[in-house]
């Protein structure tokens, strides 16, 4: 079974979007370098960020997101982002009207079902959980093995929290990766059990 990783870009004060659901400068590091991060050529990062991020992205088999992220991105037009094989969407609503049933997206009603489906689809590859409310629910359920953050030097003051609505303490191990890129600090923590 693969590792379950909670992942996202985050402000220094712990937000993944502002009050208007806008990421502001959180993704600027993805266009602040000269090394293409994917085949599209739209994402260019520093060599340091590439060396840290690309091997991780190559190991992702499934990404779990909430319906809110799915709707904000228009379901990535039916193509999972970053070359991921499948996306599991946690939602109490059905797929959008006219949605292509052959698209590799799976709509489920809760995080436990999402995790079971994602693990089945991912095999021994990484199950990535998007930071935010769904990521916080997966963490609270004790299902996250690792937390990865791309910390961007900006303070939002308020907005959508990286860990969603988690209100209990969860201990992380000391960081096992601290990598400085252009306009980003990549951090990786194991979750203590």
From TrEMBL:
Pfam families: RibD_C
Superkingdom, taxonomy of origin: Bacteria
SUPFAM superfamilies reported for this sequence: Dihydrofolate reductase-like
GO biological process: riboflavin biosynthetic process
GO molecular function (one): 5-amino-6-(5-phosphoribosylamino)uracil reductase activity
Residues annotated as domain Bacterial bifunctional deaminase-reductase C-terminal: 88-170
InterPro entries assigned to the protein according to its UniProt record, in alphabetical order: DHFR-like_dom_sf (IPR024072), RibDG_C (IPR002734)
Protein name in UniProt: Dihydrofolate reductase
Protein species of origin: Catenuloplanes niger
């Amino acid at each position: 079974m693969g590792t379950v990783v909670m992942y996202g870009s985050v402000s220094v004060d712990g937000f993944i979007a502002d009050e208007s659901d806008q990421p502001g400068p959180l993704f600027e590091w993805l266009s602040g370098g000269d090394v293409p991060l994917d085949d599209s050529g739209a994402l260019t990062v520093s060599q340091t960020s590439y060396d840290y991020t690309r091997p991780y992205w190559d190991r992702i088999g499934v990404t779990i997101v909430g319906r809110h992220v799915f709707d904000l991105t228009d379901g990535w037009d039916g193509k999972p982002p970053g070359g991921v094989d499948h996306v599991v969407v946690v939602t109490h609503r059905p797929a959008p009207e006219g949605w292509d049933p052959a698209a590799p997206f799976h709509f489920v009603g809760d995080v436990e079902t999402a995790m079971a489906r994602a693990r089945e689809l991912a095999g021994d590859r990484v199950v990535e959980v998007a930071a935010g409310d769904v990521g916080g629910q997966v963490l609270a359920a004790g299902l996250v093995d690792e937390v990865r953050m791309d910390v961007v030097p900006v303070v939002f003051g308020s907005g959508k929290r990286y860990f969603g609505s988690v209100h209990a303490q969860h201990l992380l191990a000391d960081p096992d990766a601290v990598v400085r890129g252009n306009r980003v600090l990549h951090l990786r923590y194991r979750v203590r059990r």
